[in-house]
Fold:
Amino acid sequence: MIDRVPGDLPVRGSVVIPEAELRWRFSRASGPGGQGVNTTDSRVELSLDVAGTTALGPTYRARALERLASRLVDGVLTIIASEHRSQLRNREAAEQRLVETLRAAIAPPPRPRRATRPTPGSVERRLAHKKRRSELKRLRRPEA
Structure:
């Protein structure tokens, strides 16, 4: 559950999405809900125009557009939440998922891996172990 005041959506550090850039749509959800399932609009769609948002600087925007390319439709990211029975809980779930998705998308790339070589001792131990296994298996063979 998100404990925050309605309004701008903090993502990380200096990245805060203005409330005006978030687009909400509500519709009837399938699944549990009893008699109220046919009357309440509990399914939530939260959309953010990643390509046009003012919350992301040029570096973050380029990174997000590249990493979210398969999920964007015309530069817009849409999160759908319908797992809860109440619209409020689904709104909170959609906001949380949007924040997590954006955090992952704008995270800095991992440091490149430095190639390493096995130590002479580890090579020697590996070969000695292979020799022992080979000898053991040779001794198990029936004599011909």
